[in-house]
Amino acid sequence: MLDMELTIHDAELQRAITGLGRSINDWRDAWPGVAEALRGMVREQFESEGVRGPQGGWAPLSKAYAARKAKEYPGKPLMRATDRLYDSLVGDSADAVFEVTARTLILGTVVPYAAFSQPASREASGEKRSQRALYDLAEVDLLRVAALVELAARATAEKAGFGRGR
């Protein structure tokens, strides 16, 4: 086994490395941008009635419910009879969930019927797959989120003194 020890005698560099180590474990600066991007993706999912996601378009309503909805909520698109669910997922309504810690982002809704539209929650309970997935992220969406996190990491490194042509 080869052991190696690196000693840094430059106090400014030592402070920068120490600060970077602490900062890289705290992503709170990145989460608002990631949350806004995810809200935009969900907004597009609603606007396209599911077509933008890899699962494809949302299933149509049953004939009975479509007739009832046409009377009670004329002209309203799929999943937007009252807009309660939509507003909670794309905006900042009382039903919206936005919680951050240093290492986690929780984004969602407390609207009780939202669980019926999210595949993971349905499949975990043994129910059939959702016909109208709300969070249906494509590869390009995941790459966009990764790019936002990378930008935040670069900004953190620059704040710590790296990347400025030392």
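The above is record 1. Record 2 follows with the same two-line structure.
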Amino acid sequence: MSVSPVARTPARCRVLPAPDGSDLHPIFSSDTEEALGPDFAPNGRKVAVELSGQGFEAIATVGLAHSNVNEIRRFDSPIGAPIFSPNGRRIAFTHAPGGTSGDSDVYTMRADGSHLRRITHTPGPKSSGLDDWQPLPR
């Protein structure tokens, strides 16, 4: 089975197993949470998502084989879509502790949610962005 990009729909994160987009099947569904900003792990076995629920946001991984959801870290302030490191050991995301999504910095943590580390220190009402995480050129 080949894995293609993820389509975003409210309260559901779907995987396109065929390159032509056929055979859609949900890997996450909830009436109270949305799975946003999915990113595939380098090994293709799981997807990292931002869960947005009632009064909280969290970063979770969803296993593609059995659709098991593992909430790895919860936040009470805005976060941005998670991105796996090239080796899959860490996850990067934006976070605005105690603030608004317009005032965020980039953070990383281990893929199990431990060892949270702030990477940027953007002063004032500005945000740091995060689009992709690529390995360093050799």
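The first strand starts at residue 6 and ends at 9.
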